[in-house]
Automatic annotation (TrEMBL):
Pfam families: HTH_3 (PF01381)
SMART domains per UniProt: HTH_XRE (SM00530)
Alphabetically ordered keywords of this record: DNA-binding
Species: Anaerosolibacter carboniphilus
Source organism superkingdom: Bacteria
Cited PANTHER family: HTH-TYPE TRANSCRIPTIONAL REGULATOR ANSR, TRACRIPTIONAL REGULATORY PROTEIN-RELATED-RELATED
Record protein name field: Transcriptional regulator with XRE-family HTH domain
Keyword presence, Transmembrane helix: no
Length: 129
């Protein structure tokens, strides 16, 4: 998928019109139409704003990655370990760990599993005290 296809997909998922998105970005509706159908791309600032709004990485938005964000990357990495997957599901929304999760985008699956195991060990130790 290219940028325009990804943008339309994300916009449709949030049930937004092109005008809704245009208003959010401070551009005209034809600009959004150009992004979606004519191969145009936003400037860096608007690209970052879109990625943050849709909670996806810029790489996903540009069609360079299929994993939407760090949380999806971690979920994929631990999917074959039931205990880690359940632990991840229970803690992925914790604000105190969000910065740590963002750092996982550059880690391979083995390192992500190790990171989650360490966090789980700390959690387990604290609950036993």
């Amino acid at each position: 998928m290219n940028f325009g296809e990804r943008l339309k997909l994300l916009r449709d998922e949030k049930d937004l019109t092109q005008q809704d998105l245009a208003d959010y970005l401070g551009v005209g509706r034809p600009t959004i139409a150009g992004y979606e159908t004519k191969g145009k791309q936003p400037d860096h600032e608007k690209l970052i704003k879109l990625a943050n709004y849709f909670n996806v990485s810029v790489d996903f938005l540009l069609g360079q990655a299929d994993i939407r964000n760090s949380a999806d990357h971690i979920k994929y990495a631990v999917k074959d370990d039931k205990e880690l997957a359940e632990f991840w599901d229970a803690m992925k929304e914790r604000e105190s760990l969000q910065i740590l999760f963002k750092q996982a985008k550059n880690l391979d699956d083995k390192d992500i599993k190790q990171m989650i195991r360490i966090i789980k060990a700390i959690e387990d130790e604290e609950s036993n005290e």
